[in-house]
Design a protein that fits this description.
By secondary structure, this protein is α+β, with helices and mostly antiparallel strands. 29% of the residues lie in helices and 27% in strands. Bound molecules: adenosine-5'-triphosphate. Adenosine-5'-triphosphate binds next to strand 10, strand 13, strand 16 and helix 9.
Length: 458
């Protein structure tokens, strides 16, 4: 039985979800390209997040800030100083690793304030590459990508690719609040690329150096922060399970005091049972306190307090931050949806099928239109049906091979519904709608098809 990650990685490549980047040049472990189905899946993940976090809420507004910001931002935020991971090198094979990821080494798991002295290498962890046990002492390695703005490459022109979207939100807090006239409690949501020079990227799209984050900064009155934190933990757990992640594959994990990030009062991770590790972070939900706004006020000299017109109070809001990765989310949804099943075939025998039981909102293709054969009498009606469908939903048209094989191909990429046009359709103007999960089939008049599909995909 092949490993589930290998199965998903090869399905992703074969069916056009995710390919290794620059593969003709040997590929890169830390960069991946999203193919025709992958771009749909990732867009659907982001759309589902935006819908739940912005569109359906009247207390959250959106923002799309720049990737390259003033370098002063990273000084104020603390990233230049403490956004580091402990780096060690194997003395035998000279491969480099993140010390806290070596089995046996004890260290704060993912704090960005790692101190070399907090990593305990006395247990003599094993090198995953060569099996030896001797390493250099851990040293702090800053994860930010550094570049230069403009033609002169000197320190005065240093710039950084953002390692989180959140700082754009903090820096724009006052502008957004005034423009949107939102009163606290309210949030600012952002989806966008972030960059981290990870020491050990890997596990397919789980850990890469370039990835997309979906982050909400929710501003609250100090004193109400702990209750809001609890609410957001619940809300976010519900989002994952509403979109089909099996609840037993999720858990909450509280950060210990030694692993809290420098800005955090309390952080709870939503973890998923990834097959390559016991549990891996999907989303972190942090109480960032008033750390960021106060630091930006101090460094920029701009007042970043909020004036409450009802109570006439002025204060620095506290921030609750649910921060998830779009790529990790796509991976979790793929893994969780994957099934291999025995299914009845047209011959009456059973046949093996692979199916992605993706939530319809996430499925790359919602409806596939399948003429029974390439017979030219079927084509005009099949095209007419496609025209009806494609204006509303992402659709596919497939007329190659037996109908059974075409159903299997759609099952394998998670298409919830297939619409088949056969010779009877030409007489009665009815099509067959076939359901991915139950494999039941229903005859539906073409004229009622859009309404029918709308109900089924709701
Ligand atoms: P980890 O402990 O796995 O390094 P983190 O605690 O540093 O993650 P956060 O800073 O909380 O991650 O970022 C929020 C989310 O962004 C994570 O939950 C994850 O989904 C995503 N993320 C972070 N780093 C990466 C990465 N290198 N590749 C892909 N997604 C990432």
């Amino acid at each position: 039985m092949p490993d589930l990650m290998d199965t998903i990685t090869s399905l992703a490549k074969r069916r056009g979800f995710v390919f290794p980047s620059s593969e003709i040049y040997g590929g890169m472990r830390s960069s991946w390209d999203y193919g025709p189905l992958g771009v749909e899946l990732k867009n659907n993940v982001k759309r589902a997040w935006w819908r739940s976090m912005v569109q359906l809420r009247d207390d959250v507004v959106g923002l799309d800030a720049a990737v390259i910001m003033s370098p002063a931002v990273w000084e104020a935020s603390g990233h230049l100083e403490v956004f580091t991971d402990p780096l060690v090198e194997c003395l035998n094979c000279h491969q480099r690793f993140r010390a806290d990821h070596l089995a046996g080494a004890h260290a704060p798991q993912s704090g960005h304030e790692q101190d070399e002295s907090t990593v305990d290498m006395a247990t003599r962890p094993t090198c995953p590459n060569c099996g030896h046990h001797e390493f250099t002492d851990p040293r702090n390695f800053n994860l930010m990508f550094k570049t230069h703005m403009g033609p002169v490459a000197d320190e005065d022109n240093a710039a950084y690719l953002r390692p989180e979207t959140a700082q754009g939100t903090f820096v724009d807090f006052a502008l957004v609040q005034q423009a949107s006239r939102k009163k606290i409690p309210f949030g600012i949501a952002q989806i966008g690329s972030s960059f981290r020079n990870e020491i050990t990227p890997g596990n397919f799209i789980y850990r890469t150096r370039e990835f997309e984050q979906m982050e909400l900064e929710f501003f609250v009155k100090p004193g109400t922060d702990e209750a809001w934190h609890e609410r957001w933990i619940e809300e976010r757990m519900r989002w994952w399970t509403d979109l089909g992640i099996q609840p037993e594959h999720l858990r909450l994990r509280e950060h210990g005091p030694d692993e809290l990030s420098h800005y955090s009062k309390r952080t709870v991770d939503i973890e998923y049972a990834f097959p390559f590790t016991d549990w891996g972070e999907l989303e972190g939900i942090a109480n960032r306190t008033d750390f960021d706004l106060k630091r930006h006020e101090q460094f920029s000299g701009h007042d970043l307090t909020y004036f409450d017109p009802d109570t006439q109070e002025r204060y620095h809001p506290y921030v609750i931050e649910p921060a998830a990765g779009a790529n990790r989310a796509a991976l979790a949804f793929l893994l969780d949806a994957y099934r291999e099943e025995e299914a009845p075939a047209a011959s009456g025998k059973t046949e093996h099928r692979t199916v992605l039981r993706l939530h319809p909102d996430l499925a790359p293709i919602k409806v596939a239109v399948l003429p029974l054969s390439r017979n030219e009498r079927l084509v005009p009606t099949a095209r007419e049906v496609l025209d009806l469908v494609k204006v509303r939903w992402m659709s596919d048209y497939d007329d190659a091979g037996s109908i059974g094989r075409r159903y299997r191909r759609q099952d394998e990429v998670g298409t919830p519904l297939c619409v088949t046009v056969d010779f009877e359709t030409l007489d009665d103007r009815e099509v067959t709608v076939r359901d991915r999960d139950s494999m039941t089939q229903e005859r539906v008049p073409i004229e009622k098809l859009p309404e029918h599909l709308k109900e089924r995909l709701a």
